[in-house]
# Entry
Amino acid sequence: MSRTTDDDETIRKRSGWLIPLVVLLVTVAMSLLFLALYLTPSASNLFEEQVSPTSRSDVVTLRISGHVFHIPANYLEYESARQGGDRREIALFAIFPEMEGWSNWEAQTFTDNSAHSPIIEMRIRQDDLNLSESDRLDRVYMGYVVDPRGTEGPYGLRQYAFRQDSGYHNEDLFVGEMSRGLLVMRCTRLGPDVASPNCVRDTPLARGISMFYRYKRTHLSRWREIDDGVHNLIASFETARLERRP
# Structure
């Protein structure tokens, strides 16, 4: 009887420190796991490719959804794209209004991110939705504007204000008419935290492909010229195989 009592007492003593120890170890393990997840850079941050321009003008053949583009290397932002082949997205840049690619003598201009930078960034990308700009305006943006009638904006554009409770509250919406159809742009407003606001447009380019481009809001008055320049440049990559130069 005495032995049983001693064994029970030993079990109770062990339980008294064993349970808190287990809880402590689990807490420490969970804390370490949280810190590892929070502080360790993700794979995309570790291996995200950096912009690496070149002055080479040799032509690179790239494909998106079976659509072929022949693009001089100095228009391509990333070295990996200069390997050619199939892509989900192609990143390009050009200087406005000449719509020329990177050159060493214009390196400072291409790296300038001031409000008056003449650089236009473009993305050609795979897009299975292929929403027209009219659909995007009706289905996406109109649900967030203050007044669906809009107001007369600058430079022949119709202007809409986004509601303060929307994700676009620091942007203006502009709509214009062109021979190619409706043009819809969002432009960030100048503010204490935005010294160099951009305008962006996202439009279908071909079946399964869309095009996005961005430029500084200070050039909004030339929106027609910019749009023509971008479309003509992309068309030149599509319709003809450019002559290869050494």
User: Anything to note?
Assistant: The CA atoms of residues 44 and 50 lie 12 Å apart. The radius of gyration is 28 Å.
